[in-house]
Amino acid sequence: MTLTSKQGMTRRGFIAASAAATASLALTGCQPEATLDSTEAGADAGADGKAEGSGYVSPDVEFDPETEGSWIPAVCNANCGGFCENKVYVVDGVVIRQKTDDTGDDSLECPQLRSCPRGRAHRQDTFGVDRLKYPMKRKNWEPHTGGDKSLRGRDEWVRISWDEAFELVADEIKYNYETNGERSLLYGGLSSGWGSLAKSINAFGGGISMASTSSFGSCCFYQGQVMGISAQGIGESNDRTDFANADYIVLYGCNQVWASPGTYTYLFNEALEKGVQFLFVGPEFNPTAAHFNAKWIRVRPGTDTALLLAVAYEMFKLDEAEGKGSVVDWDFLAKYTVGIDGDAMPDDAKVDENFYDYLMGAYDDTPKTAEWASAITGTPVEDIRLYADVMRKSNNVMSLRSNAAFRTNDSDNLLQLYMTVSFMGGHIGKSGNCADAAYHGTVGSPINQPLFQVGAKGGDDALVYPNPVESVVNDDEQWQAILEGRFNNTGSITMGVITPEKQETCDIHVVVMENVSAVNTSLNASLAVESLRKVDFVVSTARSFTVQAQYSDIVLPVASEWEGNGIRNDATWFFNREALVLGTRVCENLYEAKTEQEIGYGFAKAMGLDADAMFPVSEDQQWYNMLAGTTMRHPETGEWVTMFTITDEDLKALNAEGKPQEGYMPLAEILEKGIFKMPRKAGDIFTYYGYQDFIKDPKANPRGSVSGKFEIYSQTKADMLNGNGRTKDFDWKPYPSYKVPVNGYEASFVDGDINGKKGEFPYQMFTPHYLRRSHTQYDNLPWLRTAFANPVFIAAADAKEKGIADGDWVRVYNEGGSVLRPASVSERLMPGVVALPHGPWLDIDDETGYDRAGCENMLTRPVGSGCGTAGYNTNLVNFEKWDGDMEADYQLPARVPSIDGE
Ligand SMILES: Nc1nc2c(c(=O)[nH]1)N[C@H]1C(S)=C(S)[C@@H](COP(=O)(O)OP(=O)(O)OC[C@H]3O[C@@H](n4cnc5c(=O)[nH]c(N)nc54)[C@H](O)[C@@H]3O)O[C@H]1N2
Ligand SMILES: Nc1nc2c(c(=O)[nH]1)N[C@H]1C(S)=C(S)[C@@H](COP(=O)(O)OP(=O)(O)OC[C@H]3O[C@@H](n4cnc5c(=O)[nH]c(N)nc54)[C@H](O)[C@@H]3O)O[C@H]1N2
Ligand code: SF4
Ligand SMILES: [Mo]
């Protein structure tokens, strides 16, 4: 299969492209003396720091670490969960080399937090030709009416001053409040409400905000009260020093090798070396399964509930065959859970049904046997039995999952079931056993047990300026809310809330997109475009000419984290339990870009608000506050202690007010090194087994559920799901049962009959997170585009049937539209399944309507059943060979706005 870009690149092609892109490059402001050369020089990619590929400006500076610049720690704060160490070699404010963590002996006790290819290409992000240089307005935009709205996404641009930009945005917002009310504004996208504009908008009156189950899928509403596990079932894994004590590690739909690269995969290596056996459960034998030489338990996307029901069924059957208690840990179930069978019902039960009897077929005449499941899941019957055998109580089993299987329609019973299978074997709260997550930043780190706590910035923020409009629109109805003015407000599922059904209306005229790539990353990109072309005003903050910038009317250029104080976003993304990683300022703001706070301040003033009161703490002071307030657990005593010693000189250098303080280590040390790693050893004081307190003493440490125990019968769960008005024609049971998912495997057949004929869209699509990019971030970087293709993965048997060869262009399509990608033909995928890695930047061809970039969300259908899950991995498509002609994306010019007069 092809993963790397294989089409031979014509050097002339990229030189022409990059010349066009660089022609518009006007380096202003802080730009250094060092000559900034373009790729026209045509140097080779790699070690000499010059990019081969479209439009990257590479400084033509000889590398001489002895005399010239200095190494500075720099953050990489993409939303990938990595938080790896990056260091940059800076000459006169320009980064000419990068390296990664080279401290320590790189042992398992003290691993190096090495960055992935994306982090190492980061300088192309900050110094790329596609950086936005100044505020812009869309050429054919008119205040209040939107002007020619159909040109959004394909218009030219006009440079404007910051003053004008602030005035125009403030005027639009005020005008719409007066004319259409506060329900006319939508914070579009997943991270809505966190940006620099949101604070003033909230202070002024707020707007409808948006929620999504994006990362967690149907795990979203699993807070403590639902079945007594940790929020979303995350944060209570055993810590990594215990991995080697398992007999089996089940990687449930995980792909650390792509989706949590950095150090995380490495953390499992000791287990691999010590002979722990890995199982991988998913629709492809992915790079992670390959790395760990895992036994592949194949399962069709979105059918996991059927699979695990059969695993539970087969465990009971084994237990019966071998003698009660030989396989199932009945003592564990009795002590720590409720609802396994009719004898274990909780007090609040309203339904006279239970899990065991359901499995045996008491309510639907269908025992959930391996054979029953296999027909749905595609898993060989013997593999289901093997999985059940592995889960037996005499084995030590760690079950670690990502949320991929939960980003599927109607998977709302899956987390309860996943936990139940581990409860049945008693695999919780002891060495070698756990059931939790290992994805994003949570691999081998029980994040509920942090070893560092970053200090508060001060003068902040969302709590002081909450959004006065309480309405929240869920991802699946975001575009419908704009196009049809209606949605079901059931609270913020992002925050784990499900309130009862409440149908509301709205009249959206303004969309604000900050810190988010809503057009690319939300369900249904074609409706996103239609929606954005309907409203009167779209504003976004952006670093480069992102898709959301492209579809806006006014774009405000935001400084990258290398231009700020680095740590800015870390409170959100800081997940590495065992290391504190800091970045410091690498350079001044580039071009006319402003930091978030500078944008917030200017906008507040334009809104007529008291900007000084709203932003009382300078960014330098915030940075200091974070450092001064940072605490850590002392490596020997485990006590929480102040981390940094800060002197008067430090205070002066940091341009901040405060008092000198005593701490564990000098501040200067971390500012220079950028990293502190907690030394670890198996069995040390930080060793942790998930849920250990509850397991030790369940009465003294009850869980947050109604019963205080893990609930295999959760009335709360059923009531929430049945009350929110999203699911059609299905009664959610308090115990885990199977619901045929909307747009799942069954729906790929005519009338849903899996023994019948395939329907119009016979293939299942899933959308893995991809090594080349972090969601959309970094997908513009030429090095990464050159190194990794943007494929659709197709099973070899299916490709053969369709006459598609590796590298051919393929059109993948369904009711949502068509996207084009090069084929990567693979023996590692289940037939009937295609994979479109998540995150390319939408690029719709006006003539054909095809998306040339292959944005997978053109094909994801909003369903929002269950808790309102964004079912990215349950969509049906068809595909065919595409005979058109198109260059591979690394050959395309950088995306830069076409600016009037330039
Ligand atoms: N089909 C499909 N869709 C998915 C998923 C999937 O698996 N399949 N996964 C979902 C998941 S799990 C997630 S988390 C979402 C992610 O969805 P998004 O959050 O929309 O994705 P990003 O591409 O990370 O967008 C962040 C944007 O913010 C910009 N940015 C970064 N730092 C700053 C800053 O300091 N200030 C400002 N103003 N902007 C900044 C970045 O350049 C980028 O444009 O996608 C979801 N969408
Ligand atoms: N490089 C990179 N890293 C990232 C990100 C990124 O965009 N790029 N995004 C970050 C974020 S915010 C998140 S949320 C995580 C997401 O990371 P993950 O939660 O791991 O999600 P995916 O990459 O979508 O899927 C992982 C694997 O799940 C399997 N899978 C897909 N569908 C199903 C299914 O229905 N059932 C089962 N059993 N398996 C299935 C596939 O084999 C796939 O390889 O990654 C984080 N890390
Ligand atoms: S993109 Fe993520 S994994 Fe890669 S270097 Fe940055 S933080 Fe680490
Ligand atoms: Mo995510």
Automatic annotation (TrEMBL):
Residues 764-874 form the Molybdopterin dinucleotide-binding domain. PROSITE patterns: MOLYBDOPTERIN_PROK_3, PROKAR_LIPOPROTEIN, TAT. Coiled coil: none annotated. Keywords: Metal-binding, Molybdenum, Oxidoreductase, Signal. Pfam families: Molybdopterin, Molydop_binding. Residues 39-63 are annotated as: Disordered. Residues 131-568 form the Molybdopterin oxidoreductase domain. InterPro entries: Asp_de-COase-like_dom_sf (IPR009010), MoPterin_dinucl-bd_dom (IPR006657), Mopterin_OxRdtase (IPR006656), Mopterin_OxRdtase_prok_CS (IPR006655), Prok_Mopterin_Oxidored (IPR050612), TAT_signal (IPR006311), TAT_signal_bac_arc (IPR019546). Its cofactor is Mo-bis(molybdopterin guanine dinucleotide). Belongs to the prokaryotic molybdopterin-containing oxidoreductase family. NCBIfam families: TAT_signal_seq. This is Molybdopterin-dependent oxidoreductase. It comes from Xiamenia xianingshaonis. The lineage of its organism: Bacteria, Bacillati, Actinomycetota, Coriobacteriia, Eggerthellales.
